[in-house]
Amino acid sequence: MGVAVMKLRNPPVNSLSLECLTEFTISLEKLENDKSIRGVILTSECPGIFSAGLDLLEMYGRNPAHYAEYWKNVQELWLRLYTSNMILVSAINGASPAGGCLLALCCDYRVMADNPKYTIGLNESLLGIVAPFWFKDMYVNTIGHREAERALQLGTLFSPAEALKVGVVDEVVPEDQVHSKARSVMTKWLAIPDHSRQLTKNMMRKATADNLIKQREADIQNFTSFISKDSIQKSLHMYLEKLKQKKG
Ligand SMILES: CCCCC/C=C\CCC/C=C/CC(=O)SCCNC(=O)CCNC(=O)[C@H](O)C(C)(C)COP(=O)(O)OP(=O)(O)OC[C@H]1O[C@@H](n2cnc3c(N)ncnc32)[C@H](O)[C@@H]1OP(=O)(O)O
């Protein structure tokens, strides 16, 4: 039926390394150029994890040129996903913090597994970093200004039930039904003529995408100088240590 399934596979936690981001963007571009493909289901092959978000090791202990290159690729993937002409449905089968949530928010419809261990949200403030304006814009577009303001400041990671209530996801289903539900949602969306759906999607999303397009270079510079700060590097170090200690 012209639907591709994209499975994120970067064990152990599907963090979005530079390599992973680049491969993702290329795969997406290929699908976009394949006229037989009208829809993509985005999911994960890592058990219990949709995506741990941006790779912290790409943002810690590197040089400014690396940060700039990394951020350019984050922007590129976001712009491709958010403005895709294809129907994107995410089958969220695991934890989805920060950049993981961003991937899901780019989709036209989000189905999440009903497992309270899985959480989703933009938790950047908990790491001592700040979600950039275009993450924020997409959050506001999805859940409204007040909910986004609160969730961004608190770095809230929502359980599936909470995420459904606030509108971060569209549907919560038993874990073993995530994929079948994503497929049935896709069938419904495929019934809409592409040209009218695409023009409508473009009308809804263009201003948000253009907002980044017109200041991409400045956004890269902002990110690079922000992430290079000693205080921010220290926060990231502490967060990475906390992740390690969780194990021991
Ligand atoms: C004012 C101007 C503003 C301009 C600022 C501009 C930009 C700044 C903002 C940048 C935006 C960033 C967005 C992000 O996506 S940041 C990443 C946020 N991600 C997280 O907080 C997730 C952290 N991870 C977890 O919570 C958990 O790992 C988990 C995903 C729930 C999975 O838990 P579990 O199964 O128990 O696995 P472990 O915790 O043991 O992890 C295994 C292994 O993986 C490493 N790891 C985890 N997450 C990441 C990651 N995101 N990047 C890199 N590595 C990660 C973890 O450290 C373990 O490593 P070791 O095995 O070596 O110990």
From TrEMBL:
<keyword id="KW-0007">Acetylation</keyword>
<comment type="pathway">
    <text>Lipid metabolism; fatty acid beta-oxidation.</text>
</comment>
<dbReference type="InterPro" id="IPR001753">
    <property type="entry name" value="Enoyl-CoA_hydra/iso"/>
</dbReference>
<comment type="function">
    <text>Key enzyme of fatty acid beta-oxidation. Able to isomerize both 3-cis (3Z) and 3-trans (3E) double bonds into the 2-trans (2E) form in a range of enoyl-CoA species, with a preference for (3Z)-enoyl-CoAs over (3E)-enoyl-CoAs. The catalytic efficiency of this enzyme is not affected by the fatty acyl chain length.</text>
</comment>
<dbReference type="InterPro" id="IPR029045">
    <property type="entry name" value="ClpP/crotonase-like_dom_sf"/>
</dbReference>
<keyword id="KW-0496">Mitochondrion</keyword>
<dbReference type="GO" id="GO:0006631">
    <property type="term" value="P:fatty acid metabolic process"/>
</dbReference>
<dbReference type="GO" id="GO:0004165">
    <property type="term" value="F:delta(3)-delta(2)-enoyl-CoA isomerase activity"/>
</dbReference>
<keyword id="KW-0809">Transit peptide</keyword>
<protein>
    <recommendedName>
        <fullName>Enoyl-CoA delta isomerase 1, mitochondrial</fullName>
        <ecNumber>5.3.3.8</ecNumber>
    </recommendedName>
</protein>
<comment type="subunit">
    <text>Homotrimer.</text>
</comment>
<keyword id="KW-0413">Isomerase</keyword>
<keyword id="KW-0443">Lipid metabolism</keyword>
<dbReference type="InterPro" id="IPR018376">
    <property type="entry name" value="Enoyl-CoA_hyd/isom_CS"/>
</dbReference>
<dbReference type="GO" id="GO:0005759">
    <property type="term" value="C:mitochondrial matrix"/>
</dbReference>
<keyword id="KW-0276">Fatty acid metabolism</keyword>
<comment type="similarity">
    <text>Belongs to the enoyl-CoA hydratase/isomerase family.</text>
</comment>
<dbReference type="Pfam" id="PF00378">
    <property type="entry name" value="ECH_1"/>
</dbReference>
